């Protein structure tokens, strides 16, 4: 085996989630046929990784939402890694943005952060159940209805 | 937390897999060989993302399978420095706490990476952060948010016999890839602290 490129790109959780789900689907097809063997290491990893990602905001994301959000975030001076973290973690409050963005205080004011948090919540709609001050989330349920499968009971 | 790594390898398609489409057979073989495996200096392999190039296959003298050289892209778990990750507390000891992400277990948050005022509670066997008058316990299985401060690859592949064999130390499992996390920053630590 040779490594041609150690890091061609960063992947968002959503992109990984999609591949894992495809593999899961493929696995189920194989199971129905009962003829082909399916390796245990793949089963284990697939199960554990899906279980982990199922608890993250990526389950309700779509490729369109993510590229829209990336476009919107382009006007803020964020690094690639920071944008990736915003997509993966879906920060809903300035506090959460604070630890994602490096040297946040010097680069962004409180207003910017509040704006950013609002953009994130609106661009990656998700049914969070009961959560404080997120009344405006319901307003734009455009293009994607993200409710239903997101059961995040606060804990 | 995930990156795309381009790899090239010679893979085997066994006769039982001849019925599969070529690309499917190769993807299965790649996953079979790489999934859940740590590549040194690369990270933990998840699944194949896609195949970029498939060379002509060849059959070697006296063998019944096909060898194919393939260039493919692998999804690899390798968080960058300062990345914020979410896990659950797996165990605690005086030296720190161990965190698991389900598919990856070798994450350690050492005592010096805890918020100021943290100490190990001998009776309870858990860490506690004393903040003003509050005692915030870091109980097992609690979701915890941390930042990655360091990562370490250990070459564990050659199991060559050592001369001075100390049973105790050599038997201890050394993870091929481990992360060091920190929760000494506001917003990090147990999720329940910041809600």
TrEMBL record, chain A:
Domain RNA polymerase Rpb4/RPC9 core: 1-127
Name used for this protein in its record: DNA-directed RNA polymerase III subunit RPC9
Entry keyword Repeat: no
A biological process term (GO) from this entry: transcription initiation at RNA polymerase III promoter
Keywords, sorted A to Z: Cell membrane, DNA-directed RNA polymerase, Membrane, Nucleus, Transcription
Membrane topology (UniProt): Peripheral membrane protein
Location of the protein in the cell: Cell membrane; Nucleus
Major site of localization recorded for this protein: membrane
Annotated GO MF terms: nucleotide binding
TrEMBL record, chain B:
GO annotations of cellular component type: RNA polymerase III complex
InterPro entries: NA-bd_OB-fold (IPR012340), RNA_pol_III_Rbc25 (IPR013238), RNA_pol_Rpb7-like_N_sf (IPR036898), Rpb7-like (IPR045113), Rpb7-like_N (IPR005576)
Name of one Pfam family that matches: RNA_pol_Rbc25
The RNA polymerase Rpb7-like N-terminal domain, residue ranges: 8-63
Disordered as annotated region, ranges: 157-178
Highest taxon in the source lineage: Eukaryota
Keyword Lyase in annotation: no
GO BP of this protein: transcription initiation at RNA polymerase III promoter
Protein location: Nucleus
SUPFAM superfamilies from the UniProt entry: N-terminal, heterodimerisation domain of RBP7 (RpoE), Nucleic acid-binding proteins
Domain RNA polymerase III subunit Rpc25: 83-194
Main location: nucleus
Key words, A-Z: DNA-directed RNA polymerase, Nucleus, Transcription
Family listed: Belongs to the eukaryotic RPB7/RPC8 RNA polymerase subunit family.
Protein name from the UniProt record: DNA-directed RNA polymerase III subunit RPC8
Protein species of origin: Coemansia asiatica
């Amino acid at each position: 085996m040779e490594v041609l490129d150690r890091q061609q790109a960063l992947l968002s959780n959503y992109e990984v989630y999609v591949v894992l789900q495809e593999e899961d689907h493929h696995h189920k097809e194989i199971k129905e046929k009962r003829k082909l063997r399916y390796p245990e290491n793949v089963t284990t990893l697939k199960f554990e990784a899906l279980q982990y990602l199922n608890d993250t905001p990526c389950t309700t994301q779509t490729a369109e939402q993510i590229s829209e959000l990336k476009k919107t975030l382009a006007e803020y001076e964020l690094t690639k890694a920071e944008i990736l973290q915003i997509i993966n973690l879906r920060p809903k409050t300035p506090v959460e943005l604070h630890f994602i963005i490096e040297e946040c205080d010097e680069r962004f004011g409180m207003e910017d952060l509040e704006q950013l948090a609002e953009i994130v919540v609106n661009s990656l709609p998700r049914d969070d159940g009961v959560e404080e001050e997120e009344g405006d989330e319901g307003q734009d349920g455009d293009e994607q209805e993200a409710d239903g499968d997101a059961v995040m009971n606060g804990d | 937390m995930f990156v795309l790594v381009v790899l090239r390898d010679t893979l085997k398609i066994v006769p039982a897999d001849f019925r599969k489409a070529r690309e499917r057979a190769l993807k299965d073989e790649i996953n079979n060989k790489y999934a859940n495996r740590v590549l040194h200096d690369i990270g933990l392999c998840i699944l194949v993302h896609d195949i970029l190039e498939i060379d002509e296959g060849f059959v070697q003298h006296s063998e019944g399978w096909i060898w194919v050289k393939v260039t493919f892209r692998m999804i690899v778990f390798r968080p960058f420095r300062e990345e914020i990750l979410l896990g659950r507390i797996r165990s605690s000891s005086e030296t720190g706490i161990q965190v698991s992400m389900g598919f990856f277990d070798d994450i350690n948050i050492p005592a010096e990476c805890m918020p100021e005022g943290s100490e190990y509670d001998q009776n309870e066997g858990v860490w506690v952060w004393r903040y003003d008058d509050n005692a915030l316990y870091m109980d097992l299985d609690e979701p915890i948010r941390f930042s990655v401060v360091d990562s370490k690859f250990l070459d564990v592949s050659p199991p060559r016999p050592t001369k001075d064999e100390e049973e105790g130390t050599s038997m201890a499992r050394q993870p091929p890839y481990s992360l060091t996390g920190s929760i000494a920053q506001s917003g990090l630590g147990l999720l329940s602290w910041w809600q």
